[in-house]
Structure prediction request, 348 residues.
Amino acid sequence: MQTLARRLAEIQPQLAQVLEAFAGCCADLAGRIAKPAFNQEIGSEKGGINASGDLQHGLDAYADKLFIEGLRKAPVAWLVSEEEEGAVALNPCDTRNAPYALAIDPLDGSSNIDTNASIGSILGVYQASNNPAASFAHKGEEQLAAAIAVYGPRTQLWLTTGQGAQLYLLDRDSGEFILANAQVQVPPETSEFAINASNYRHWPAPVRHYIETCLEGKEGERKRNFNMRWLASMVGEAARIFHRGGVFWYPADSRKGYTNGRLRLLYEAMPIAMLMEQAGGLCFNEQGRVLDQTAASLHQRTGLLFGSRNEAGYAQRQFQADAGRAQNLPLFGKHSLFHPDFSNPQER
Prediction:
């Protein structure tokens, strides 16, 4: 039985310290979530609005504080969190002894808190400089490590340091993460997609067209049946895709506040992209491969598509195709109930 600590002994010691500290925070958070008094103390009714304008649950704020304090003891100069407006100085102006900058979503899937569905945490690790802005002005492919933790029936930790992706499971008795899969591989083929279909009318035409071809099943152009999943938790979707394949798509759409996408590039899309590619999958947004990009701001939003190599690649090619071709689909035909009235500014 190999522990995370033993595996991390094989990598650069300071980076190992950072990843051990993150894993320790995840274990603490998993234990806190499981306590019976949780809902009364930090449930969704305790929320406010976070730095990027989203509803903040009590557990979001709790997780944010937990990671900031837990990682302050690690060799980290700067930390960016979904819950903080700017970069937090943990050990500033000491990039020799604290050479890392961390981008974190302390709690992904907050809407699932009260329903006891999957939630999780996300980490991206970058090389730090004395300037916090420069510390996060890296391409996604320059990440030194990435990880997601998923808090469900079991607590999972998916981790990469650029040498493939690994899965660890939390042993609640010992508090240690135990290696469960040393070489995670996303199945390249899939007949399963995850998307919030209630937003169909707001999607760009190529997204609607792709989903239509899936829904046509074996009678349609894809010649096979598809299943749909939607957990409202990106990390939960990623965990399922790591295990059995699939695609996740959260596109930018025409709704107010969603025209540039809803997920954050720096601390959600880029870590997921590194993990997916290290496990043999693909990850894109509207501009192309996510790992080729640099965040223009700490809380920059993006659409996101990731998953099984063959299906995610096919979906990306569909997105790049002529957007106008989907206007002739039956559900969006001129006389269809679902056709948007583009003479109405509210529908643009």
